[in-house]
Design brief:
alpha+beta; Phosphatase 2c, domain 1; three-stranded antiparallel β-sheet; 5 helices; 12 strands; globular
Length: 224
């Protein structure tokens, strides 16, 4: 889980948070640029269903002003799945590959570059899973957020979510690629019923489990 809190300030610095699935709270760090003060922190927990923590996350603020203007800051959260700790491998590969491919893409605009990065990362993770039987079937969910020039957009695969907290109101900004969310979309069940449904953990898309996956990219929205 990554929390990002923008505030208005005027300064300049560069930092990065990299999280590799350990059950701990990282120190809060402030990332100061000309119009935003982004306070970023990460926390995760193994939960009740797993023996190992398979989460990974990363926050990147580019040092180069031109890159920052064109691509913005990038936040990624990945929740891995698979036996023999392969879920941890998949989630770590996802955050590494997505960030690398996204910022290396000089052809596409930011939304297309992020979509392309997630889909290319998925293909590479899938190919890697075929090379080792211990990694076979591994995969991960992904939610990524770009903050760019006063606006933001997200891209996701699976059921890791993006929320916005504003004026004490917590708003879900993404819809899961899951069996129960598809039932909610069709009006078969309510969101409240989805929470306790027998199929609540069945996801319809994941990064790395198939040769090709489609990442869903949101429309841009203002950062206030």
């Amino acid at each position: 889980m990554i929390f990002i809190k923008p505030q208005t300030i005027a300064d300049a610095s560069r930092q990065e948070i990299l999280f590799k699935g350990k059950n701990t709270m990282l120190p809060t760090k402030e990332f100061k640029k000309t119009n935003l003060n982004i306070v970023a922190a990460m926390q995760t927990d193994v939960g009740c269903a797993r023996d190992a923590n398979e989460d990974s996350g990363r926050y990147i603020l580019p040092n180069d002003p031109e890159t920052l203007s064109k691509k913005g800051t990038l936040t990624i959260v990945a929740d891995g799945m698979g036996g023999h700790a392969s879920g941890e491998v998949a989630s770590k590969m996802a955050v590494d590959l997505i960030s690398e491919i996204y910022y290396a893409d000089e052809k596409n605009g930011a939304p297309d570059a992020l979509k392309n990065a997630i889909e290319k990362a998925s293909s590479q993770i899938y190919e890697t899973s075929l090379t080792d039987e211990k990694l076979f079937g591994m995969g991960t969910t992904v939610i990524a957020l770009v903050l760019q020039n006063g606006s933001a957009f997200s891209a996701h695969v699976g059921d890791s979510r993006l929320y916005r907290l504003r004026a004490n109101n917590l708003e879900m900004l993404t819809l899961d690629h899951s069996q129960v969310m598809e039932m909610v979309r069709r009006g078969i069940i309510s969101m409240a019923e989805a929470h306790d449904h027998d199929d609540k953990n069945v996801i319809l898309r994941a990064v790395g489990t198939q040769p090709i996956v489609e990442a869903e990219v949101s429309a841009a929205f203002a950062v206030e």
